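pasting for ref
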Amino acid sequence: MEHRRLGRSGLYVSEITYGNWLTHGELVDREAAVACVGAALDAGITTFDTADVYAQGAAERVLGEALRAVRRESVEIATKVCLPVGDGANDRGLSRKHVMESCHASLRRLGTDYVDVYQAHRFDEATPLDETLVAFDDLVRQGKVRYLGVSEWTAAQIGSALALADQLGLRSRIVSNQPQYNMLWRVIEPEVLPLCRREGIGQFVFQPLAQGVLTGKYRPGEQVPAGSRAASGGRAPRFIRRVLGDSLLARVQRLRPVAEEVGTSMAQLAIAWTLQQEGVSSAIIGASRPEQVTENAGAAGLRLEASVLARIDEVLGDLIDLDPSKTAQMMAVKPEWARSSG
């Protein structure tokens, strides 16, 4: 497992990050979650990503328990704040009140004195940006947060935050962005990635497997496999089934010969693709079984030839989404290739 600098910061993260969205506290039980974290550590993964909203805090709690016996300085823990964690008016957003309270709650659940990366899970239009930035900066000054990041912010929002932080004379600066990014969903390429490269902001990319679609396990005209996330309970099927369309699945199957020629699984091919894109610091993988962690971690260090990258683009063609207006809309936008079953 190789490690990369997070943007231009001094922090190194493993090029594969283990994340627990839709798994810990929801899709898998505690025993399986702990086993997956153990497999991640065995594979050399040192970076772990979670959020206060995942399973309404349970994901942070399980992750903290799974890492309890690990030397704290040997791992990097990232979590997030913004999305609703309760029914109260202040149980969401990026107000000073919620940011402070959510950070303290996350630290308690994770069983740690600090988090390495604290991320604004979405942009909050209702809160003055200076209020949010000062609250984040105060957490860094207090030693409860080491580095700051955002998730699914547009280029304009990131740029405004950077400029305002400079105007306010804040010591802390955004060093990471966590966008959805994979072979199919490339909406950050026209605007977000160029800005982040200029400003030294590294990418923690999530869904490099497009919710499992790019593994090839979902086939056109067939029922979803038993034991897959799309066949499971909880919220996972709701997120996955919205991107299952026969036209897409048929095209993905055409990537299988490409993976075979490279000598990798389709999952490893997809993860390696994201890691090869300039500006990407780490790809976040999720898993419900330890063997999935081990397989996906096998993408670390894999380099794809330019001819392979070109073939991938040729196969996926018009299914590739590059519309920058869809940044931060991944929960609401249904891709064109997912709207048809033919």
